[in-house]
Predict the structure.
Amino acid sequence: MAGWIGVLVPGAIGLLFVIVGIPLAQRRVPRNAWYGYRIRTTLKDDAIWYPVNERSGRHLIVLGGALILVALVGLSFTGDDATQRDLLILSLALTAAGLAYSIWSGYALARLLDREQRISAG
């Protein structure tokens, strides 16, 4: 199993991110309590929910694609446990950095849209 860890983990996480991200990017997920970028600001208005979740969905798709690429590279090194470990570490670091950026970006967009709504209403 160790000889495949740099293929299986990034491949599975990448595929999951793509599957979860597509409906968000296509604006097919309505406001709900379970799925999407859920903060107070996004949950109060569709005009904030959809743009923030579209951006977050696109980020998940790109991040998932990058992880799938790491997994494909790992296919060339299935007999090398050290390289598989390094690819696993790379994929986990990429996941953490990508999710952190997506969370920050979604939060910043939600604040901007909320501020613009309050200014136009005010």
Summary: The mean pLDDT is 96. The helical segments are 5-25, 40-43, 46-74, 81-121. Residues 3 and 80 are 6 Å apart (CA to CA). The two ends are 60 Å apart (CA to CA).
